[in-house]
# Entry
Amino acid sequence: MKTSSGSPTNKKQVKSEGHPSGDDRFKALDRTMKRFNFEKDSLLEVLHDTQEIFGFLSDDLLIYISTHLRVPLSQVYGVATFYHFFTFEPLGKHNCIICRGTACHVKGSDVITQALSEEFAVPIGKTTEDGLFSLTTARCIGSCGLAPVAVLNGAVHGKQTPQSMITLVKDVLEQETEVLEQGEAG
Amino acid sequence: MTLEKLERMAQRERQRQEKFERRIFCCISTACLSAGAGQTINALQEAVDACHCKENDVEVVQTGCMGLCSRGPLVRVEDKSAETLIYADVDVDLSQQIISKHVPMRKLTDESIPEEMQELRENLKKARRRKRLEKHILGMDSPFFAKQEKIVLRNVGHLDPEKIEDYLAHGGYSALRHVLQNMTAEEVCDEILRSGLRGRGGGGYPTGLKWKSMHQEESETKFVVVNGDEGDPGAYMDRTMMEDNPHQVLEGMIIAAYAVGASYGYFYIRGEYPIAVDRIRRAIRTAHRNGILGKNVLGTDFNFDAAVRIGAGAFVCGEETALIHSVEGKRGMPRMRPPYPSTSGLWGKPTIVNNVETMANVPPIINRGADWYANIGTEQSKGTKVFALAGQLTNTGLIEVPMGISLREIVYDIGDDVPGDAEFKAAQTGGPSGGCIPHEHLDTPVDYENLSKLGSIMGSGGLVIIDSTTSMPEFARFFMDFCVDESCGKCVPCRVGTIQIRILLDKIIAGSGEPEDLNKLEDLCHIVKDTSLCGLGQSAPNPVLSTLKFFLDEYIALIPAQEPA
# Structure
């Protein structure tokens, strides 16, 4: 029987030497696994932290976790793909999440998503080819009193319309091109 | 020792608060923040600073949800010598007007004031002459506030969620103290049973019974899990509770642990709620520092500790056996019951899983007694219920009402009717597991039994109002889409059945349905309902069944008339 305190830890542990690639972010990941004593039960927490550190879960990362927690790769993959929160592709530099909870749905969040997708030529759930902008949806972000709601680069915007969202995204992307142009000019 | 220290902390904080002539509360919960509460609270503080008040004249406090989220940011002014007022839609300009109205500006010689503050002072003087303020006052006697009864949310919006002192000053942890000093575990279970409290996550199982059966289990290791995996799209009661008064949930959890004999507990919180995760973690840390968690809780020989586990976006994890698998770091799939988690849960040990709101009900019940609680509500459903009121209403936000209130009162009094020319069509409760209640049943009292009689459920507390612009078959398809996505795939009726239901709905909505499709749809719904493994599958057809029952004409209208043979 396992308990939270007595769960089998992996005694012969690989020392935290980081990743052969020399990528420092792996040290942060090692610290997370160490904090949980390399317990197998901590898989979900480790996946959360990994996504936070790297932005997404690559095959390489899943293999790394599997080796260090000594959980079969099939199980790591099975858990990671079960939950919607994990993503296996890098997101764009700017990310827009449209809430499609019930309250937002009845107030027309679909129309907003469709409008953004057409305006910026990006399929829903994908990133533009230049890697600048991703359009994703969320089940519910719990701001139903302000429906319809969108999250642009972490900031929540309530009571939106297709036009207001397009303007917001355009502003963000225009700043991006300005920075680029300035960079080229300089 | 610990007790005295806590008492002193509470005393000191109460005295500190009482010193202030007036206290200005600004809501910084998610809804108000996205409406600009960040700027509002800064503007309030700057304006107060510019007034150069005497010491202990005024304090600006960040606090939690005041309820009327659609009119955020909300600011409440509590003045010792005047009536308490709540202002809605407070922007920077309005904050200056509020301060200039309520806070006396101290005269100072000009040299002592920095230039930019001089400018702000001039602005404040001018602001006093503007007359915009009256329109933003929310009457405390308006139906939105008057019809509510706050037990769970009583202190939400009145205290700073990040300060344990504030919770203590509001009588926090006194229930825990009473339980540990004066009650046996069995007496606690009995008290909760007598209060009539039922699970607020949707199931409605009597909490006291659950605790009792777990109390009787003989095992050295037992666990308590607080279910904060609020997956119902359109609901945010648990989020608000965890964000705006985390210590009340924690106190309920510790009392539960004492009653059932658990020594370790987990908060399972949705990954989409980073602030809730942060506040609960902070609450656990401060409770630890003050001897409320850990070894010898409050100086007694009771030991209990807690940790946070973060969910990762799976609706099915709201089901207790799936949730337990997820806490163990596995795929969140449910399993057959029995054995119930109270016999075999986390790592095979007895475990109780209670919803956030259920836990938050526990401290008030202990403080004010089971009899008091049992007096509120209806015969079968006691106490109050928190609802996230959303959709097509003038007033949307977080409300707490006594069980047995009619839907009509919620929609027309608290919600203040559907805005614009559209008309009320249905109230949807219980999210993807619930149903739609039409106009003719608006007088139904809201409790567990009456809602399920109508083919809906109480659910966790999502209450979405739909107006005449929404097509019901499409609305049913929206929920079915959700269930198709969220079905974990373990049992066939749910995995395959939900997809087949959606295909039928697609066909009907596209206008190529045949008359017998409606019968097929209903049969299929009953098969999925009767044969699925867990609550997700068993309730997934509810939105379709209830719309077929009350809005059949909308389905029929979509089916093309048959050409005569």
